[in-house]
Amino acid sequence: MRFGAFVPQGWKMDLQDQRIDEQWSSIRAVARRIERAGYDSLWVYDHFHTIPRPTQEPTHEAWTLMAALAVVTETVRLGQMCTCNSYRPPSYLAKVAANVDVISGGRLEFGIGAGWYDQEYRAYGYDFPRASVRIAQLREAVEIIKAMWTSDLASFAGEHYRIEGAINQPKSLQDPHPPIWIAGGGERLTLRLVAEHADYSNFAGDVETFRRKSDILAKHCEEVGRDFDAIGRTYHAEVVVADNEAALSVVGERVAAQRGTSLEKYRLENVVGTPDQVVSQLGPFTEAGCDYVIAYFGDAAWGDSIEVFAERVMPQLGS
């Protein structure tokens, strides 16, 4: 089992108590804590304004952070969960990602998905077609990105995108290219795309959902002739962990308030507990074949869940 953790970036109201001129310092400090604590990777979200509702609180942009984090860390890998395909032309995204891989010394994990946040699409002027169209666009984008990462002159003509003789230098340092994470659980289209192109899948939800998505992915792999075991199956969860129940109540209440809900409701949908309780909640995912947990800690900017998880949960799950 491997582990990743998100830096705070404002999207989930996790920087709201800090002045704007303090926020980058906070993000940088958390990135270094993640690296120091022994996580395999650190992650950002790709969104432009806050949830559960749009506010004037800052939300720091994903790929800007990727470049910045590449130079303030040394060993931890860097990922996005996940880049919204619709927000950038795939040829441009391929160029940006390759540069970040070079800047980081070959530490990029490339996450991408079809997009889902319709309100954000409308706010920023992006078309929001039906899911099947967004997934078709994602399929073409992944093909373009892989071509630009592996060809000197990349050309592609599809229904949604076209490039002709695109040059992408510098190429990424990773050979043949950075690992591709395709997030989402659409059973007919998205998981088919995962079977064809991804190095990692990523699921949310409960363990039964994880098992069902895994079974469907295995069937797609069989149909396309792909080794199912060659695709990492990963789980994304919001986690609050504290040494004891009293501390857990204090931290949990504050994180739930950031997310615009009560602690009781937050506990129903997320991983919340003492270290042993968190191990009990995540253990079944390990048994179901999950080999990588990507955790969002709502207290990353002001609490110590990052360290408690690393010291008391990761060893029990097999870091």
Task: Give a description of the structure.
Helix 2 runs parallel beside helix 3 and helix 6 (190-197) packs across helix 7 (207-224). The protein has helices at residues 20-37, 62-72, 90-103, 118-123, 131-150, 190-197, 207-224, 245-258, 263-269, 275-287, 305-312, 314-317; strands spanning 2-6, 41-44, 77-80, 83-84, 108-113, 154-157, 162-166, 180-183, 200-203, 232-241, 271-273, 292-296. The strands form two sheets. An eight-stranded parallel beta barrel has the order 1-2-3-5-8-9-10-12, surrounded by nine helices. The mean pLDDT is 96. It is globular. It is α/β, with parallel strands linked by helices. The protein has one domain (2-317): Luciferase-like domain (TIM Barrel), CATH 3.20.20. It is built from twelve helices and twelve strands.
Strand order of the largest sheet: 1-2-3-5-8-9-10-12
**Helix run count:** 12
Can you count the beta strands? 12
**Spatial separation of the terminal alpha carbons:** 5 Å
Order of helices and strands: EHEHEEHEHHEEEHEHEHHEHEHH
Mean pLDDT: 96
Please identify the structural class as seen in this structure.
alpha/beta
Query: What portion of the residues fall into strands of 2 or more residues?
Result: 15-25%
Biggest sheet overview: 8 strands, parallel, barrel
Low-confidence stretches: none
CATH classification class? Alpha Beta
Q: What is the CATH architecture assignment? A: Alpha-Beta Barrel
Output the radius of gyration.
19 Å
Number of domains: 1
At the third CATH level, what is the topology name?
Answer: TIM Barrel
Q: What is the percent of helical residues?
A: 40-55%
